[in-house]
Write a structure and sequence with these properties.
Blueprint lengths: L28 H10 L10 H13 L5 E7 L5 H6 L3 E8 L2 H11 L5 E5 L6 H5 L5 E7 L7 H13 L1 E12 L10 H12 L3 E6 L3 E7 L5 H4 L4
Helix pairs in contact: 6-7
Length: about 230
């Protein structure tokens, strides 16, 4: 969870965001160094009810019980990774920070069908991500607003090219403004949706976060189950 720095009365997804100096890297790695320096799980992903509830909603929003090849960019301490592992025959989880990668590897233990790697995206896409694709599931959770706008657009383009025809992509991001944010969540999801060119299957707008699922399978879940 990102700390809510929204001033009183300011609407979520505000376009009046607090920007710092332009970044030369795709993400501000110094920010993550500072976070992980003091706590293995700086956003309390393991133990907060907010994160536990959100994780349950993310998993429930997935349109199939199982997938052949999943990808989770920005895995942090591996809680979503661990929940996705039983639903994927193969799963790649990456994070830019070495501490997060090490924690996720410990979290997953002997799950040999899960590969956890360090990667700064989109720079390391060709070397780390592309060899494991194409993917039929991608879960993009709480990472988009740490990219520079240029890097986010490049990431979305690369992601679109690394999917199977029937792939499912889920994005979930915190809505209120905070100091490190580079783009509003609504803009992040619009850019991703435009790059994917797939229909939106479901949308959840919570007071704190937005969740969207794009699916290439065509038929709805009820249609696939023969219910309509």
């Amino acid at each position: 969870m990102i700390q809510d720095d929204t001033p009183a009365g300011q609407a979520a997804d505000s376009t009046a965001l607090t920007h710092r100096s332009p970044l030369t890297d795709p993400v501000d790695l110094a920010y993550f160094d500072a976070q992980y320096q003091h706590h293995e799980d700086p956003w309390h992903i393991r133990d907060s009810w907010y994160e536990t509830r959100k994780r349950g909603l993310v998993l429930a929003a997935l349109d199939r019980p199982s997938y052949a090849n999943g990808f989770e960019p920005g895995c942090s301490v591996g809680e979503i990774t661990a929940a996705l592992a039983p639903r994927c025959r193969s799963l790649l989880a990456v994070d830019a920070h070495v501490s997060a990668v090490e924690t996720t590897r410990r979290r997953l233990g002997p799950d040999t069908h899960v590969m956890v790697a360090q990667a700064v995206l989109p720079n390391d896409w060709s070397a780390v991500v592309a060899p494991s694709g194409p993917f039929d599931l991608v879960v993009v959770s709480e990472i988009g607003y740490f990219f520079t706008p240029v890097a986010w657009r490049e990431f979305c383009s690369l992601l679109s090219g690394g999917l199977t025809a029937d792939a499912t992509v889920l994005a979930c991001h915190w809505r209120p403004d905070f100091a490190e944010r580079t783009m509003a969540t609504a803009e992040l999801h619009e850019i991703l949706g435009d790059a994917l060119g797939r229909p939106v299957q479901s949308t959840l707008t919570d007071a704190d976060f937005s969740l969207q699922v794009w699916a290439g399978a065509g038929a709805s879940i009820a249609e696939r189950d023969g219910l309509r």
